[in-house]
Specification:
two-stranded antiparallel ribbon, globular, mainly alpha, 59% helix
């Protein structure tokens, strides 16, 4: 099977270039963070730390090499064979555990364990991370056209479930790492479980899951970096933290679909 891997890398470079331009244009409208009543005060919360990009870069690089290097491809096959030999029970829990860390963030805040951001701000950050995840994974699936292990289609690379799970786990880590480090790590077991069961259920290769994890972590890091710019756009010019917001974000459920709605007054 011929894999077209050059175009995805070109699109990623274009996307990163766009983010850099967006950052440069937004420097004159930086929002100064102030403590919120239901969140802790944070210094440089939204500064992009390039060291935090090392892990996702390594994971994504491994995933890309699994498409092109025979030795890494062989590890995909041997991993699937090993899983098949042990014949673990298949289950569909991975469809739900991908969201577990994000749900835990909201649950912990509801019982009084505060994170870095209030309800509105953390919702904007999480929604942004999921939009970025989709922007990475969906186009790549259709451009790479890697066949799934079970042969059901050619949308295997990267794993969307793993990307969502690790973006959620990274979201939980970022919200609680400064107040309760051990608690902040508790989302990763759910993310790992999700990735493992994508392979157990024969839906993804090892390289798909590893790349998905990288894209998920990267998406959350970008969401935190972009938040001050997005917040500035939502509030509008001339408004500050003490001004009643002219925008509102809320979850919705309609026709068996769950999503996030956005309303802004002009």
């Amino acid at each position: 099977m011929k894999i077209h891997y050059q175009k995805p890398l070109i699109y990623l470079l274009i996307f990163i270039s766009f983010l850099s331009r967006f950052n440069a244009q937004s420097k004159d409208s930086t929002v100064v963070e102030e403590p919120k009543q239901d969140s802790i005060a944070v210094v440089n919360t939204h500064k992009l730390n390039y060291k935090s990009l090392i892990v996702p870069a390594v994971l994504i690089t491994y995933g890309v090499t699994s498409l092109t290097m025979n030795k890494v491809k062989q590890l995909n096959i041997s991993t699937r064979t090993e899983i098949g030999e042990h014949q673990p029970t298949r289950m569909s829990l991975d469809n739900y555990t991908q969201y577990a860390p994000a749900a835990m963030v909201y649950g912990l805040n509801a019982i009084g364990i505060k994170g870095k951001h209030n309800l509105r701000d953390r919702t904007i950050i999480y929604a942004s991370s999921q939009l970025i995840v989709a922007a990475f994974t969906m186009p790549l699936k259709y451009m790479v056209k890697e066949e799934r292990p079970d042969g059901s289609n050619t949308l295997s690379f990267p794993s969307g479930h793993a990307a969502t799970a690790f973006s959620s786990a990274q979201f939980m880590f970022r919200e609680f790492k400064d107040t309760n480090f051990l608690l902040s790590l508790s989302g990763y077991p759910f993310a790992i479980f999700t990735g493992v069961y994508r392979m157990v259920n024969d839906k993804h290769w090892l390289g798909d899951v590893v790349a998905g994890a990288g894209f998920g972590i990267l998406s959350t890091e970008l969401a935190y970096w972009l938040f001050p710019r997005i917040d500035h756009l939502l509030r509008g010019k001339g408004k500050n933290k003490n001004t009643l917001s002219s925008s509102m974000i809320m979850p919705f459920y309609q026709n068996k679909a769950v999503g996030i709605g956005f309303v802004k007054n002009f």
